[in-house]
Amino acid sequence: MTSDADKQLRVSKIRDGTVIDHVTAGQALNVLAILDIDGSGGESVSIGINVPSDRLANKDIVKVEGRELSQSEVDVLSVIAPEATINIVRDYEVVDKKRVERPAEVTGIVSCPNRNCITTADEPVSTRFEVLSDGLRCAFCGTIVRDDEIGEHLAVA
Ligand code: CTP
Ligand code: ZN
Questions:
Q1: What residues bind Zn(2+), as annotated (predicted)?
Q2: What is the pTM of this model?
Q3: Which of 64, 86, 139, 151 has a CA 20 to 30 Å removed from the CA of 46?
């Protein structure tokens, strides 16, 4: 007999590591890019894109085996996946569950859309944005990147 739970499980459970759940649909690959996770460290990474969710219409999910991500590492994800929950898994059990929190600023992950900004010139200046309630403001030129525009300005993708 196949239970409903069996039918619904799309990405295998992990034994030890981090599950980034309730990721805004379509953002899973950006999550990996921002966290600089590409499997080159040998860790197993599973992703689900556009999987059904109770809480969101559809969601993405990212599971990283063998790595426990810290709050400061994951907070930057809030700019592309504000509803994300971070589950730390040990021996198959969720031992910690936290929400991502908007940091005060983000450095190096978004590029400034202003072509005259010093960060887009041939200068070794990394980008820095102040995090507002609905977007980001370039610390150098003041240009605003709205939350819904961030995906197209990711410097890491
Ligand atoms: N998970 C996993 N491997 C485990 C344990 C959990 O991949 N060994 C995943 C689950 O599939 C789920 C997420 O981690 O996507 C959170 O697990 P859990 O807290 O058990 O699920 P829910 O109660 O549904 O979480 P929430 O209330 O946050 O939706
Ligand atoms: Zn700028």
A1: 112, 117, 138, 141
A2: 0.88
A3: 151
